[in-house]
Amino acid sequence: MLDSCKLKSACNLPFIYNKKINTAGTSNADVPLPDPGMYQLDITLRRGQSLAARDRGGTSDPYVKFKIGRKEVFRSKIIHKNLNPVWEEKACILVEHLREPLYIKVFDYDFGLQDDFMGSAFLDLTQLELNRPTDVTLTLKDPHYPDHDLGIILLSVVLTPKEGEHRDAELSENEVVGSYFSVKSFFWRFQTQSLRLSDAHRKSHLWRGIVSITLIEGRDLKAMDSNGLSDPYVKFRLGHQKYKSKIMPKTLNPQWREQFDFHLYEERGGIIDITAWDKDAGKRDDFIGRCQVDLSALSREQTHKLELQLEEGEGRLVLLVTLTASATVSISDLSVSSLEDQKEREEILKRYSPLRIFHNLKDVGFLQVKVIRAEGLMVADVTGKSDPFCVVELNNDRLLTHTVYKNLNPEWNKVFTFNIKDIHSVLEVTVYDEDRDRSADFLGKVAIPLLSIQNGEQKAYVLKNKQLTGPTKGVIYLEIDVIFNAVKASLRTLIPKEQKYIEEENRLSKQLLLRNFIRMKRCVMVLVNAAYYVNSCLDWDSPPRSLAAFVLFLFVVWNFELYMIPLVLLLLLTWNYFLIISGKDNRQHDTVVEDMLEDEEEEDDKDDKDSEKKGFINKIYAIQEVCISVQNILDEVASFGERIKNTFNWTVPFLSWLAIIALCVFTVILYFIPLRYIVLVWGINKFTKKLRSPYAIDNNELLDFLSRVPSDVQVVQYQELKPDPSHSPCKRKKNNLG
């Protein structure tokens, strides 16, 4: 009988044909021999040159599709109004065999219409050398008009055999033929390929270190505007990680002073691609220049000051780059749990004890997440099943479980550990269906603020939709433990939040625009109503109320001292606290925002299906960027007001207690210390800050504090839904016994 290991080795991948002589001595030109293995194709889509014009203005809005066989494996972003677009986008594709070429097709994006074809080309994968980066120039052609010149596409490709995928060379040809036509081998082949894909996904998200980058300044940048200046900003990319700096208006020597971190996924470091741009409202941003940082050339545990000359442009960028080794994330089986080991638990508790306040301020706490199982998931495959795997994210830390195939009730039993850098972070757990031919299908998601976690309790969380506004099918069972140092957490609250590398791009939505407008209107109406109330007192609409207001005005003005401002805020916080603990909660649940959020996806779907309603979107498309800016400004203004309200409403008790401590300190300081001394200390600190710390990053502690308070929309998103009683563990056991 054929050895099972050899059978799986022979059946996992497609076959190539080779002319051989079989054991009977007859020619066997069509006997399949095993392919050497699965490959990883890393592609960098560089740029296009002299592409075809498809729009009336003599330009195009090009984007590129990559296909293998008939399946699309990658689609680039759209570069508007450019015949020489620069993409610099990377794609990682798993290739089962090399017989199928890579098919590249370029299109011109037309909103509301069918996209125009701009040319295509083929890349023969069999001609690539393994493990060697290759620059490829492809000439675009139209099969119907082969004589037309449609420009070129420039790529960089690397073809790499996957580790552990080499076939057993000792298989005889008869074994190969037998295994190929075996039905059993077909299923083994499919299962092993899928497992390998899951392993590749998981390995690609385990990182080995941190790159800390401080963007200091730019010098002598190229002037792109008619006034001889620019509005520069900088984009950074390391693999799939991205960061975009703030825009510095009207300057050629911008001072950014921004700090952020990237993760290292490769031992050798990698390359950071840096591009500088000039912001242009209403049209495509101008390219200023580019440069790179080779991390493999930098020593670890040391800060490097780099002054980088911009290529294809003018000027220089000044950076601070530090590489540090780290082991802040891990994944293991349920049997290997850090907190269940008493000795290890004591070490963790000691690390975050109150006595170690000033030891490594960035290390705030420890998070352990047990992803146990899920039940009743959505069906994503035509077979009536799904291939679910789970993604656990904390800020920019991202880990994956293995995939459980053909199952709607998967059991993962995995333990994830993270170091907490900000106790106000939100743990996101997302369930996907693995699809090896295209991107994974979304099955459900939950978002859990760390401060709302009850340690050591196994809970069933109802999965939500992508917007986190309503339930979807299924529940996931998690057990979470959080250990943190409260003093470190409080200090970290007063510095800027960590920015996520990968965030959804701003989209223009009529429903979202309306929602943000209503939110801002509600905040403004609070001020308007207060003004009406004061005006009614001045107009003596109610004589008793006006008389009381007049007496209060005289008393306050006559006895006013500066320390009374934080004292009044302190009294307001205390008053709301006693209302809550006495059961007279004055916090009104805002159903308007929740209802709008729940209906948002449904309304957008209706708009897409109803062609008569698309006229509104078509009209505002010409000013899309302006509308998105207005939409975002409305969101920021509304969120600011809602965060102030939620601070006083004790939405996050930790932050409200922190506000009480701060207000007590300010009250005492203002009571005992004259104002002139306080202003003097503040001014001396501001004037000497750059002298004492030239690369210090400016920040506003109050705004950093408020950024941790959730807005009303986030309150709805983080709200825990009640699971179906039939999903409780006790109920499930009774049903099984029955």
UniProtKB/TrEMBL annotation:
**Main site of residence?**
membrane
| Membrane-topology annotation of the record | Multi-pass membrane protein
Which residue ranges run through the membrane?
547-578, 654-682
> Which Gene3D superfamilies does the protein's record reference?
C2 domain (2.60.40.150)
The entry's family comment says: Belongs to the MCTP family.
Return the PANTHER family for the record.
C2 DOMAIN-CONTAINING PROTEIN, DYSFERLIN-RELATED
Quote the protein name from its UniProt record. Multiple C2 and transmembrane domain-containing protein 1 isoform X25
Q: Which InterPro entries does the UniProt entry name for this protein?
A: C2_dom, C2_domain_sf, MCTP_C
Ranges of residues in domain C2: 23-138, 191-308, 342-463
Tell me which SUPFAM superfamilies the record gives: C2 domain (Calcium/lipid-binding domain, CaLB)
Coiled-coil portions:
none
Stored Pfam families: C2, PRT_C
Gene that produces this protein: MCTP1
Q: What keyword terms does UniProt attach to this protein? A: Calcium, Membrane, Metal-binding, Repeat, Transmembrane, Transmembrane helix
What are the subcellular locations of this protein? Membrane
